[in-house]
Amino acid sequence: MDRFVCIHGHFYQPPRENPWLGAIELQDSAAPYHDWNERITAECYAPNAHSRILDADGLIRQIVNNYARISFNFGPTLLAWMEEHAPDTYAAILAADRESQQRFGGHGSALAQAYNHLILPLANHRDKRTQVVWGVHDFLHRFGRAPEGMWLPETAVDLESLDLLAEHGLRFTILAPHQAKRIRPLDREQWYDVGAGTIDPHQPYLVRLPSGRAIAVFFYDGPIARAVAFEGLLSNGEQFAHRLLSAFDPTPGHAQLVHIATDGETYGHHHRHGDMALAYALHYLETRGLARLTNYGEYLERFPPTHEVEIIENTSWSCAHGVERWRAACGCCSGGHPGWSQAWRGPLRAALDWLRDALATCYEAAGARYFRDPWAARDAYIAVILDRSTANVDAFLARHAQRPLTAQEQITALKLLEMQRHALLMYTSCGWFFDELSGIETVQCLAYAGRALQLAREVFSDGAEGRYAELLEAPFTNGHGVGYAWHATLEASFLERLAAAKSNLPEMGDGRQVFERFVRPAMVDLTKVAAHYAVSSLFEDYPDRARVYGYTVERDDYRRLEAGRVRLALGRARFTSTVTRESAAMCFGVLHFGDHNVSGGVCPYQSEEAYSHLVEEISASFERAELAEVLRGLDRHYGKVTYSLRALFRDEQRAILRAILDSTLADAEGMYRQIYEHNAPLMRFLADLHAPVPSALQASAEFLLNADLRRAIEVDVPDRDEVQRLLAEARLWNVRLDSDMLAYVLRNGVRRQAEAFREAPHDLDRLREFEQTVVVAQMMPFEVDLWRAQNAYWAVLQQHYPARASAAGQGDRAAATWVAAFRALGQRLRVRVD
Question: Would the pTM of this model clear 0.90, i.e. be above it?
Fold first, then answer.
């Protein structure tokens, strides 16, 4: 076989975590999912790990792991999220790489990626190096092997970046066809022009680098990649396979590789069921012997480059103007806002470049006091990012510190490294990709800049006004040959430059205003962590040692007093950052009036005597029911800065607001129920006459029936008759069901039953409960995702069904009953059992 096919998927999401908390907070735009990572995992990343191949009747005949048969890369920051929040999918991705090594001659299909997806040609040499080093080490940590290839973000390329890849042992990368300039056979001198995407993509090419190193480059098939991404080719897997086959040169006698590269999200998120089209296309090619599947590492070993190529530097796959999309108003945009300008891109990059160079000057000078080599320490810091355990951080500091550091010096050293980490994260490419300065992707980059500024202020500030010490007053060069001197705070100088970036939305103003509107309020310090803990402790029972995002809380004292609906919490605890080791002992007091009104304060712990005095005084006022005096006591002891529910981080804030609203909604439900039940005969009469039901009565029916339906399906095993009755009533009154919410609740219920059955597959009761839940899900007038249910069923079908079916065939009545129920469930889940 001399015809080979390779599909590459670039799976990536921009980092979305709150830089101060180290976690992604609730994103309403991703509803009903918690955030966009979770949503896209459900729509794409997980389905590709368990993709369906259907038979002619539309029944599932095979479930396959697509990752094991394609080439792929995942962004390191996405994998870090997935490891914690989608562990099954994460494990399937790692398993796929191991399986691909067996399939493809010892070559794994996973590629590394430059760490946080910044545009390498626009970065300075030092940042390029760190991005490559971090990408390689993150890959080695996760996949247990050295990467053979690396994905360049947006395939943005220059020779310096390729040289760094080769220096770190990477053998190849992937580029778009229009990024090739000219080629020549390795044994000849004459060059041939291949501009405008005319390069032959059927073979790898060698790029000779200025250092004397070399690296292979695969140029993917542009027309087929465009058809997959934008022209609907994934609507049919067989058509997809034939389009791939059409790219082969009919001339026999030499090996050919047909390969494409697209965003991995194409297969499921951008195109629903795109994962199934991919799975079927690969299955079609393989089972019919039409082509052999391969990956880049295997193909490169078998068929090394025979031609040399010169690339066009400073180009990418997603900007027709090179890399201008990430620094200028080149005209590339999403197309959703005609008339908007992207002139903000240049000033944004200029401001961040200025900040990067300022922070580098500070870091290099201050870091020399703690590290043997500050920049080598930064490159090695990936080991800490991947494992923040005390032992690992201590080992890192022992390797890189000039001397044993005091506790305070360790905090400063770690803050310096975190400052540099965020100075890299602020360049994540999505910040420039879209149309508007105030978009969430750009705000995320500004948040990283805000965190870097905060860390710089904490390390370098001199005095209460936040002016900078002598270190910052010396002139420095910003990397463009222009000298600057420090005359004000670093932050003020940055914001002054940021103000040159103008929003398309009048209410957003400019970059400075966007920063003040979105970034400043999000900033967190230990005092805000203490405030969050204090307020949330009224609604959640914390243990004496608790974790609050990236902080630990060690409680020394806590007491909660109650009088009816009013509650008072007083306590003291030590709050410590798990990232920088910064720590502070805080006292707190907070008063809850029983609704959404909460008032409290936080102050540094001074002494046991002072703490005991304030506790006794405020507790005594509360016990006398003198709430005004309690508030005055809180003000007197904790200062004039008060905290309310607004002090809570978003997820806890929403959870507590839901709890507070529950009683309000229960009251509203009682009123709606009274209206509905009292007027039901009249509503039926109106329905019989085909007369419109008044909107007030219609609203009562809609509220109640949605609430009752949710309550009916939230139980472990929904009552089919009750659900059927409620659905009939909904049809009678032409009620609009909250399909997104109800489908989400049912999907989770089916998932729980599926997991319970998979854990005890021989338990007939669990099997019947599983089927009952599936029946209810299929009664709904909207689609309920049964993907996880099918996965669990498939696993039992492969692992347990053959033995049970054999036992049933030999006269085992219990096994026969189980087999009959299992096959009936398979019909409902549309899985081919035989």
Answer: yes
